[in-house]
Amino acid sequence: MVKDTRLSARDWALAALKAIAAGGLAAVAVEPLARTLGVTKGSFYAHYRNRNELITAALEEWARGHGEAGLAAFAEIADPAQRLRELLTVVVQSVQPLAPSVHLSLLGDRNDPRVKDAVRHVNQARLDLLARTYRELGLPPGRAASRARVAYAAILGLSHLAQTDPDAHDAAALADEASAIFLP
Fold first, then answer.
1. Which alpha helices (H) appear in the chain, and where do they start and end?
2. pTM of the predicted model over 0.90
């Protein structure tokens, strides 16, 4: 089955993100991506000059989707306790057993400046929203920032656990437990 050959640059970036999730930056290769997308390498060169441009675009796409823009719906929830519950529930329920994670896969490439920038951007957006939420729940700024870091570390830890231990995942129970632990 041949897919539509009119792929956008974003289609290529999203395919690269899937490859990154599965195997880090090393997994981004034009020919295998073209086969996955059902097109020729010519489609790639209509959008990018080289693999590095594709990786940069993929990381920018990930940072946009998982930074402020990806958090906008949560940021609009007026009640901070509800915002935190929904954030934790969505994160925990979206953690699939043994599913690849772009964020965790990028840790293997953390010395690449593009990866550092993208991960820093996403981490900061998530930490800012969590800290703001904890401040709105009545914690002083320093304590809110600390609680945000601990909550975020737990979220990343749950994601790691889900990838490495399929028996450690019961989304509903984890969401309830996370809410009980991280709501002041």
1. 9-23, 30-37, 41-45, 51-66, 68-75, 80-94, 102-106, 113-136, 141-164, 171-182
2. no
